[in-house]
Amino acid sequence: MKLFRLFALGLLLVSTAAGCTKPQPPALPLMEPTFFASENPKTLREWGMVQVSDGALVLSERVVSYDLTTPLFTDYAQKLRTIWMPAGVSADYNPDDALTFPVGTVITKTFFYQTDKKGQVLQKADQTQIHKGDGLNLDHVRMIETRLLIHRADGWTALTYLWNDTQTEATLHRIGESVPLTLVRENGTYEAFNYIVPNVTQCAACHATNVATRAIQPIGPKARLLNRDFTFANENANQLTRLVAMGYLKGLPERDQLPLQVSWIDTKASTDERARAYLDVNCGHCHTPQGPAGTSGLYLDASATHSKTTGVCKLPVAAGAGTGNLRFDIVPGKSGESIFPFRMDSTNPAIMMPEIGRSTKHNEGIALIRFWIDAMEGSCQ
User: Fold this and answer.
1) What are phi and psi of 30, to 5 degrees?
2) At residue 84, what are phi and psi to the nearest 5 degrees?
3) Are 112 and 142 in contact, with CB atoms under 8 Å apart?
4) β-pair type (131-132, 141-152)
5) DSSP assigned state of 16
6) Which of 142, 243, 259, 381 is least surrounded, with the fewest CB atoms within 10 Å of its CB?
7) Domain-wise residue ranges, the chain
8) What's the pLDDT tens digit per position in 264-318?
């Protein structure tokens, strides 16, 4: 009888333990946004700009999210972009380049994917499921990294924070990282690839847009890319006028005088406008007269207008594998004979363009550029 009672007691303890939920650690209090003039905190949370709380990535007070009409392609990653400035300062309007941000500005960009039940990342995200207010609902989200641009007294500093497997914190990571992922494309096929988190040198490769100064600077938040409506947590508003209302921007001209660049997926716009917008964002920060690819003589930023410098019937400066034995960057009416789509359609480091920032092919972008070239009239005879 005694043995039976001990056995019954043991079963009761086991069943009770099995039915209990493991206690969760108490949520950490939210940090206030902080500008570090020289120190590089070990964790992203210490900055207080974006942080995890109650199953969501939340934005702190006066941290404003924004989006671009045409974003840079990064292996189909979704991006949550934010801007924060200390009280009493604001950015100056610039009609052509990025807004002129004051010292103290912190810009963040969190790279993430929506995931399926198996944890595989999706090519296309359902925006209604992944967003929570201005932040992210982390139930079906895999965050990879958060990049910071900090405007300090001696210039801009770029830092990268890598998210842990539990999606609770991101830590400073300077040496780069290769993150193996499986991409589920829209057609249902699976593609294994390595998402590359950049090291410090690679950050400068894109953000040091002037080879003479080699100074890092923002490249995305330009007026022509911000001039669009965006749905914030409680309103839909033009992003530039909202920045003015927050005290984050001054010198904005009248609405009809603002530059406007079409979205590369806007089927109401012309094919030429869409293709030029795509090339401006994905290639134009390097392919300018003062940029890292300036010696190529191929200019793809929004200000470039001459057909030869934008690639039409232009001979490449350097030969080799990158040309695919093709003669011209663009041959009107013949995308199959043009170097542009050949390099975009490759993941070989010796061939592909852009040279960094992707490990997969952007099929939709390639299709647009091919269609654009095939619709061109003329020849290179």
Assistant:
1) -70, 140
2) -140, 140
3) yes
4) unpaired
5) H
6) 381
7) 44-245, 265-374
8) 999 999 999 999 999 999 999 999 888 888 888 899 998 888 788 899 999 998 7
